[in-house]
């Protein structure tokens, strides 16, 4: 039986701390925010500059949309992926709010860009259970599945370039020709450009981060519960 959101509130507050581009001091303790419905009460519960920032005043999306910026290197992202997104995404879908994921390149080097490209390739070449399992494998190999980024099996393949990723994909059942075609496709090339541009444009400095309607960045330090997070997403998607 699924746990009520109130019961997992403390767990959520602890587990949704992000992986930062640069280490940040822990947030100061604050009184919990009461869960808000996606109505007029949300307008008073959520404050610009506190719970969210406008990172692109001209930002638009084709419909209500939540974008998660994440990293396969990030332990907090793995926790979000494995423990919280299975609850969050269905709640968004029940409100007709779309959800997508984009990889960041905090390292700013070629390996970081190759891993970002690899995730874009994953989106183009896999789906369903195969995609879920391959993502799990990448979290394991790249260290995101382990908080200290060092406790994973050191016999795992090392990822330094796109060729290393290709070997992992092929081992997971992805056709090598399909991988190569996706790697050089216009869709993937554009994703590599756009995702890195958006990382800067939307001021994504830690992951996981959520941007709503390509306009609003949620301040995860102010999120106390999953219910509050989903309500904030719903509120911003309707603004």
From TrEMBL:
TM spans (from-to): none
SUPFAM superfamilies in UniProt: Thioredoxin-like (SSF52833)
Cysteine-cysteine disulfides: 74-77
Alphabetized GO MF terms: oxidoreductase activity
Key words, A-Z: Disulfide bond, Redox-active center, Signal
Family membership noted in the UniProt record: Belongs to the thioredoxin family. DsbA subfamily.
Protein's recorded name: Thiol:disulfide interchange protein DsbA
Organism of origin: Ferrimonas marina
Higher taxonomy: Bacteria, Pseudomonadati, Pseudomonadota, Gammaproteobacteria, Alteromonadales
């Amino acid at each position: 039986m699924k746990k009520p959101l109130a019961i997992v509130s403390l767990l959520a507050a602890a587990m949704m701390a992000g992986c930062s581009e640069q280490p940040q001091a822990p947030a100061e303790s604050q009184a919990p925010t009461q869960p808000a419905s996606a109505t007029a009460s949300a307008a008073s519960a959520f404050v610009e500059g506190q719970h969210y920032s406008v990172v692109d005043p001209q930002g638009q999306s084709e419909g209500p949309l939540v974008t998660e910026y994440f990293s396969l290197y990030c332990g907090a992202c793995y926790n979000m992926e494995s423990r919280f997104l299975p609850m969050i995404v269905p709640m968004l879908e029940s409100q007709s709010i779309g959800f997508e994921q984009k990889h960041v390149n905090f390292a700013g080097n070629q390996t970081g860009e190759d891993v970002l490209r690899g995730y874009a390739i994953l989106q183009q070449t896999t789906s369903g259970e195969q995609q879920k399992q391959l993502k799990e494998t990448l979290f394991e190999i790249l260290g995101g599945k382990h908080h200290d980024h060092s406790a994973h099996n050191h016999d795992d393949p090392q990822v330094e370039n796109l060729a290393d990723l290709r070997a992992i994909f092929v081992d997971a059942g992805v056709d090598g020709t399909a991988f190569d075609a996706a790697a050089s496709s216009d869709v993937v090339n554009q994703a590599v450009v756009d995702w890195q541009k958006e990382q800067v444009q939307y001021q994504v400095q830690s992951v996981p981060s959520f941007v709503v309607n390509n306009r609003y960045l949620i301040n995860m330090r102010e999120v106390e519960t999953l219910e509050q997070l989903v309500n904030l997403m719903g509120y911003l998607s309707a603004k």
